[in-house]
Each structure stands twice: as C-alpha cells, then as structure tokens.
Amino acid sequence: MAAVLVARGLRKRYGRTEALAGVDVTVEEGQLVGLLGPNGAGKSTLVKIACGLVRASAGTVEVAGAPAGSAHARRALGYLAELFRFPSWMSADEVLTLHQRLAASPGGAAERIELLELVGLPDARATRVGSMSKGMQQRLGLAQALVGAPPLLLLDEPTSALDPAGRRIVRGLLERLRERGTSVLLNSHLLSEVELVCDHVVIVDHGRVVAAGTPDELRRQGGVEVETGGGTRRFPDARRADVPRLVRELVAAGEDVYEVRVVASSLEDVYLEVVE
Amino acid sequence: MIAIVGYGLRESLRRKMFAVVLVLTLGFLALYAWGVHAAFRDTRSFVGPGQEALDPDVLAGAIVFGLAMFAILFLGSVLAVFLTLNVVRGDAEAGLLQPLVVRPIGRVQLLLARFAGAAGVCVAYVLAVYFAALGITHWAGGWWPDRVVSPGIELGAAVVLVAALAVAGSVALAPIANGIGTLMVFGAGLMAGLLGEIGHAIHSQKLEHISHLATWFLPFDALYEDALHRLTVDTTGFAGFVLQLGPFGGSHRAGSSLLLWSAVYLALVGGTALLAFSRRDL
After folding, report:
1. CB of B102 within 8 Å of any CB in chain A?
2. Fewest CB atoms within 10 A around its CB: which of A229, B28, B145, B230?
3. What is the domain count for chain B?
4. Is B281–A81 a contact, with Cβ atoms under 8 angstroms apart?
C-alpha cells in the first residue's frame, strides 16, 4: 500500500513551547488512523501542518507525494477543523457550491445532494447555516471536507458537537469511506470511537508519539478471571491458552467453576497508562 | 479566484453595516441637496456689484462639492475599513478562514480576491455617491466641475489605498485594533494635509515639508487633494485663488510622480500583506 500522508521528524515550536518534538506518522492508502492524546499534546498542530495551515519548524510532511501546503497536496485532501464556522447567511447548498468551485470539483448538484445525504442532512439544502444547530453545522463541515472526493481526509474532532445518533452516522460514514479507499487521519478524544473504526492508532503526548499500532496490538492481555463456588479467582499472568489447564486444575482441586473470563485491557487503559 | 471575489462581494453586501452606510448616505445626500441649494442661493446674493471676477456659482459649487468630496472620502474609507478589518486574523479566529485556505486556491489568490471584492464594493460606492452629489450640485446651481470623471476615480483610488492598509493590518492585528489603527492612519493623512494648508497660509516651510513627507507615506491624502484640484483646474483669477483653500487640506496638483507612487505604494502594501499572510500560522 502506498502512503498518502508521511510525516518525518516533525517539530513545531510556538515561542518557548514545543508543540511537536519529532513526530513520525504514516497514513497508508485506505487506512483509517486515529490520533489520540490529551489536550495540548500536539494533535491539532500535526493536522494543521499536514494541511498547510501551520508551518513546521523542522521535519517534513508529504501529502500524496507532495510537500504539505503545496497546491498538489491541498488538492489531495479534505479538512474539517476542530473550530470552524461557515458564514451564517449561506445555505448548506451555497457552502458546498463554494467549496466545489474552490476544489474544482465537477460533481455539481448531484454531488451536493449525495454529500448531504451521506452526513444525514438530506433536507438541509436550503437551510441557512445561521439557523442550523451546532451538530448540523458539524455534519455540514464533514460534507464540505468530502467535496471533490479527496483521497485523504484530515478530521479534527469531527464528532465533538454531535449527539450519539450523529456519532453513529459519522462512524458509518467513516466505514463507507474506508470501503471506497479513502484514507482518514482522525483526531479524536473519543477513545471508544477510535477503537471502533480505526485500523491504526497513534497516541501523542507532549509532542511525541508514545504508542502506535493496531487497536489489537495496543490492547494487552490482562490475565484470566474464574468465578468459582469460593468466589472470583484471578490469574493475572494467565492467557487464553491457559484456560483449559486452569479449569482442569480447579475442578481437580474440588472447586465448582461457573464462569471463565479472559481479561484484556481496553484502549482506554493503554491510553491512560502511556499518557499519565 | 472569482469564487472568492464573489464570496467577498456577497459577504460585504450582506453585512448590516452596509445597510447602515446606505441609510447614512441617503441621509447625507438629502441634507447635501438642501445645503447646496441654499449655498447657491445665498452666494448669488452675497456677490455684489464690483465682484464680477468671482463667479458665485463656481464659488458655491466648487466649495460645497469639495466638502461633499471630503464626506465621500470619509464614508468610503469607513466602509473600506469595516469591510476588511477582519479579513485574515478576525476570520481565522472565528474559524471562517481555515476551510478556504486549505483549498487549492492558495493564500495569495485568497487574499487578493478578498481585497478585490471589498475594493470593488468601496469603489462602486464612492463613484455612486460622487456622481449622485455631482448631479445634485448641477441640479441646484447648474455648475459642473472642470473635470467630471477623474476626481471621482481619484477618490475611489484613495479608498482602495485605505482598504489595502486595512487588509494588511488584518494579517497581524485583531479586528478592533486594526479598525482603530487604520482609521487613525487615515486621520493622520488628513491632518497632514491640513497642516500643509496651514503651513502654506502662514508661510511655514517646516509645516509644508512635514505635510509633503506625509503625502508620500500616506498617499491617499494626495489623491484627495489632487481630486479637489481637478474640480477647478481651469478656473483662473481670484476665483481660482479662493478655491485653492479647501476644507481639509487644500487642492494641490499631485503630479505624475505621486500618482505613480500611489500605484507603487499599493503594490508595496499588498506585497507586504501577502508575504506576511503566506508566513502566518492559522
């Protein structure tokens, strides 16, 4: 698989503050990468450098083989900022039309209708931004990022203003995008969301990558718990393969076994472990 | 780029401030019509026998229309400042700019297009009010200036320079600071013109030198003074002398070098703004 986004040794200083201290991140074609980290970890800075809003102090970022910020790189990406606004006097259709013209998308009205349906706003074409709820505006922001079907999407907290139903729509949308081969770098605080949809997770803290891998690689086995007549027995070093032996030994010892659980740490446990 | 110009135009025309300016302009034009009518009537009775060298209609028309040109410059400049004061930093802080900047259009084209949209609105406004005031003046006293079109174009150009300063300021300054700063610079330009006028009247070379220097730093005032000069460029004799004394900085011929400098100044301000914007983190 070819890489759509490659960041190497990325550094960014804001005065005395080091927002990024040498970050390496790669997003492969069709891959959905989750970017996790506490507030101020440097996640948004990384995304902003990738889309050319912020200049790196050192290191390189390439988008679709071109330096970040170049016209070629900007043509290859769609971006949803964490804090964004559209002019309140524009309708949803006008916002998308403007972005179609800026992205030179030939999609026309059909693309606008499809995008609004994708984000769950099929009846909002003529609705003014000023009369939309925050959640609706966020969905419109997502539709805007998808204009022109860019191969890479950079989404900075795309579900922060959404209710559970809206989040489910976005999760479904991300899965459809993956099926279409679109790569996504998803910056989110919602670990459960990242765990559910991402192929790869990068955890950033203090401007550095502190953990990276697939969700399964990051989740660690946390032992085995057995419910017996005498209470819960814990075997912290045991693994799934040890379960038959443990049960045999307990039964042989006269214990009644009611339930066996293989305990695995969640992404949240891993996250808290590496950032605290 | 046309998409952004259109966006800027619609943004400008939809603001409530634009409606306020339109209402104020209509009020100004109504009061102007009343005032200019009275001015022509009173001046005709004021110029008596033995004062034939002073054509009362030329005197009233040039002075009152000169005042109207100052008002048009002021209104146009206020409009220019309010339409452009938040183009970069203000819009970036509101989150309006980022979705546009990441598009392939690029920062240079984006800023040029936003400037072109605002400048287009301001020039159209200045020319509309200029020709409306000119029509009212002719209706009230039958007077036409010696040059009809070029003073309006120069007023429009002066407002474009103010808009360029406000756009450049918006790259670094928050909207309120930028608005205050640009209007203070605008006021400083007018004040320099007034100082030059006082220096001329009291034969102070120092004051005239300061005023001359200021016109190079703030050439919109020189354009305004040249526009005033063109109103009565062919008027000679005592009437011509009296009409040199304008209301806020007298009428002065700018000369081709200053007109050329205004174009260079616009390019320098624009180039500085583009360079600063291209290096700015958003």
Report:
1. yes
2. A229
3. 1
4. no
